[in-house]
């Protein structure tokens, strides 16, 4: 049994089998690269499942975390911590005027958003939230209810009331779902797990208008799209449509678990002392990582790099599309790429791994490719060459 096999057999014995894991045991990472326990190197074009948005072990993030770990790791939220205040300020200054609640994950950030919306609607007896089919909002009981895909719900019924789903990018469907109980609309500005689905700008604007007219809370789940990967700091900025509430997680901590629920305008002061809490939320150690992410994006001009590299990767993937007829479409916003196939992508993804390239496949037929914001041209060349080699075998 190799080193990987030994780890896998321990998992078989001791770790709950909730993930469809591939037999790859990663040991270290640097930028766009990771190494497995056997010493093999991989180029990672889906780093950390969208968590390592600025690459693995960015020196600024790792440095901040190491220093903070020696200073103070945890502070209870009935005290103040200067570093939590700094991260809240950094988020607000790059988003919109408002306030931040700190959680520890995407699902938790969304829970805070839904609680906020319900509290907002409470005086008028409204609680229902419209979400989209093919959405993904997390795995808590409320978030599997919010998620518009049966695969996450089956076996966990009865589910709570208060969520209805309508098709994505269809404003009439939203209007038809409105009723006297509706308090909010929640969606990802770009559906990622759902297959990299990009809505029309008119739809996004119409949602904003509807929420203003009907006094609804517009919630954008930017857990995956936030923190620069779209080419703007937050994907809503691409559409010029501001939400009332935005949630963040994944890339925000550069590898450490942090979530944030950001609320502006009429939603800014809805949650009051005693209405919501998190023991670990916004601890100094995760906040030091998040501050590092903001610093790294600014100092490394990573938004500009994202846009430049996105254009380059798009050109290269379009060339593959011309070469292989089973590539139906290449979709992207910044470095959030979906390559839609007319065949199943599972084997492609596995073969790429064998060849030293990590990507993802979602909704069976969409290759999800989201390289680090610090990715270099040569790394794109290397990754696309591997993908080309794998596709040529089909
Ligand atoms: C990953 C994800 C979540 C869930 O985040 P967790 O940290 O796993 O709870 C929620 N929404 C979106 C859009 C995501 O991509």
Describe the structure.
The protein folds into two domains: 2-58 and 301-392, Alpha-Beta Complex (Aspartate Aminotransferase, domain 1); 72-299, Aspartate Aminotransferase, domain 2, CATH 3.40.640. 38% of the residues lie in helices and 18% in strands. It has twelve helices and 15 strands. The chain has helices at residues 3-14, 59-71, 82-94, 106-121, 141-146, 171-177, 201-214, 236-239, 284-299, 302-323, 346-354, 377-392, and strands spanning 26-30, 33-36, 41-44, 98-103, 128-132, 163-166, 182-187, 217-221, 245-248, 259-264, 327-333, 336-341, 357-358, 360-362, 366-369. The strands form three sheets. Strands 4-10-9-8-7-5-6 form a seven-stranded mixed β-sheet, with helices on both faces. Helix 8 (236-239) links the parallel strand 8 and strand 9. Helix 10 packs parallel to helix 12 (377-392). The relative contact order is 0.16. It binds pyridoxal-5'-phosphate.
Poorly predicted runs are: none
Largest sheet: 7 strands, mixed
* Share of helix, binned: 25-40%
Task: Report the CATH superfamily of the largest domain.
Answer: Type I PLP-dependent aspartate aminotransferase-like (Major domain)
What share of residues are in beta strands? Answer: 15-25%
End-to-end Cα distance, whole Å, is 31 Å
Total beta strand runs? 15
CATH second-level architecture of the largest domain:
3-Layer(aba) Sandwich
Helix-strand topology string: HEEEHHEHEHEHEHEHEEHHEEHEEEH
> C-alpha Rg, in Å?
21 Å
Bound molecules: pyridoxal-5'-phosphate
Structural class per helix/strand content? alpha/beta
